[in-house]
Amino acid sequence: MVANAGLGLATLLITAFDPSLLSGQPCLSQSYYGSFSGRSIFRPDPSCLELVTDSLPSGTIVPASKDMAQLVWIEEQAIDDSLKSPSGGFDLQLEELLTKISTLGTAYSAYDFAGEREQVLGPPITHYDVMYRSGPSALLSLPADAAKVIDTIIPPFWKSTLLLKEPITYVPVPSDAVQRVRALLDSVKFDPTVAAIVSNISVPQMKNDIRFLTGEDGKSGIISRHSFSSGVRTAAAWLSDRFEDTGATCELRPFLAGFAPNVVCRYPSTVNTTATVLLSAHYDSRGSFGSTRAPGGDDDGSGTVALLAIARTIARKGITFRSNVELVAFSGEEQGLLGSKAYAREMREAGTNLTLMVQADMLAYHAPGEPAQLGLPDLIGTPEVSQLVANLSAIYSPELQVGLTPACCSDHQSFHEQGFPSTQVFERAGPIIDPMYHNSGDLSEREGYDFEQLKSIAKVQFATLLTAAGFDLPE
Ligand SMILES: *[C@@H]1O[C@H](CO)[C@@H](O)[C@H](O)[C@H]1NC(C)=O
Ligand SMILES: *[C@@H]1O[C@H](CO)[C@@H](O)[C@H](O)[C@H]1NC(C)=O
Ligand SMILES: *[C@@H]1O[C@H](CO)[C@@H](O)[C@H](O)[C@H]1NC(C)=O
Ligand SMILES: *[C@@H]1O[C@H](CO)[C@@H](O)[C@H](O)[C@H]1NC(C)=O
Ligand SMILES: [Zn+2]
């Protein structure tokens, strides 16, 4: 009572994910925290709550103080049955996590990012709360310091997302933007020039690039690409230089203190237009609890080298674009899409005319014996953009089996929330099956890591760029 005096109470509303709620209830779309594993979280004011509760089929109201500590959504990712641990369901693992959190003051000092983080000796954490529980997911309230490192102590195959301090306004993709994607879809047909360009992506080059990013080459000195590590900053500088080698102009754009910057690289348009096409991946990574190693060979070194392979091919072929083109490597993805959220918000505020964006996250792994695949998001994303990607895949990478994946959500979600047409490409037409997901063993040299699938998916992402932006080759 005393601590909260004068601050008043806020209320969270948690509902089943429903796009019509976001477009049909302005007071909700203006108080949106995000959607997580099939749920959406809002912070409506009392009159809004009154307005919507009658029409909602279901939902949970969670009282919360307005100066809530950091809110963190945690969930078990959609994973293949073969990866599920036989013992200890979500509840038991959550119990263990809470115990770990309560000793975080100590664990924190023992766990540092390869000696790269200042050792912090804090008192044990006493103020944490489970605010909501549903299925294999929960909403926690934690002190900010603990929240910042929670991704290093959650169980394997779990994911954590830090909610923003304030809710955002959800912007549905405007119908004229969808119309423009439909027009692209209608125009899709085999183009031998596009086929020749995209097949020029070099597998040996990608093998080389990934070994630098994971540190497998023994030369980069990278041990971790965790968002706060020094390795991730080595990677940022190197990526920026490599993209600039291909004729792009790059910027290291900070978005939050302590986090490595987004690497934003641009190619100019040869014609006078505001139209912009964006391809992206995230270059930060995660390791296992107790190990400082976070090589991120698949998650998301694979998407990052795909992006770089596309850039290298743009240079090799002398391609110029008839739209503005951005290739962006995001940071802070593992803490809750933080880098892309900041960048998508900036783009929205600047009124960027984004034709579409495609995020590449985890492209290289499939279970040994499985065919090469391409997964597209089942819930979060613009269906027309996913259809465009699927149709281009059928044309330029027919070897890929295309389907939907419940593995959700990467940086495209940040653009989706800001009303930009967007989708994600993923390595599997099903849930995650990579046993090294969020693991210190996520290297590129291992069974199941398939550079041919990586190339096939990179070709599709590249074909989407060429189709959406328009391009020319030198005479
Ligand atoms: C895209 O692919 C789907 C499924 O194969 C097909 O039905 C549709 O006609 C294609 N659309 C275009 C515009 O080619
Ligand atoms: C890519 O194209 C260049 C010439 O533009 C050629 O020298 C190179 O062998 C090609 N590489 C692949 C993998 O097709
Ligand atoms: C580009 O187009 C805009 C709007 O149509 C116009 O105002 C501007 O002068 C043009 N710039 C150039 C360099 O032609
Ligand atoms: C965005 O770009 C498209 C394609 O060039 C153009 O038709 C449209 O007018 C642009 N929209 C704005 C708001 O500039
Ligand atoms: Zn990822």
From TrEMBL:
GO MF assignments: metal ion binding; metalloexopeptidase activity
Organism for this UniProt entry: Gloeophyllum trabeum (strain ATCC 11539 / FP-39264 / Madison 617) (Brown rot fungus)
Ranges of residues in domain Peptidase M28: 262-446
Pfam families xref list: Peptidase_M28 (PF04389)
Entry-linked InterPro entries: M28_fam, Peptidase_M28
Signal peptide, first to last residue: 1-24
Cofactor(s) needed: Zn(2+)
UniProt-listed Enzyme Commission number(s): 3.4.-.-
Keyword terms, alphabetized: Hydrolase, Metal-binding, Protease, Signal, Zinc
GO biological process: proteolysis
Record protein name field: Peptide hydrolase
Family affiliation: Belongs to the peptidase M28 family. M28B subfamily.
Superkingdom of the source species: Eukaryota
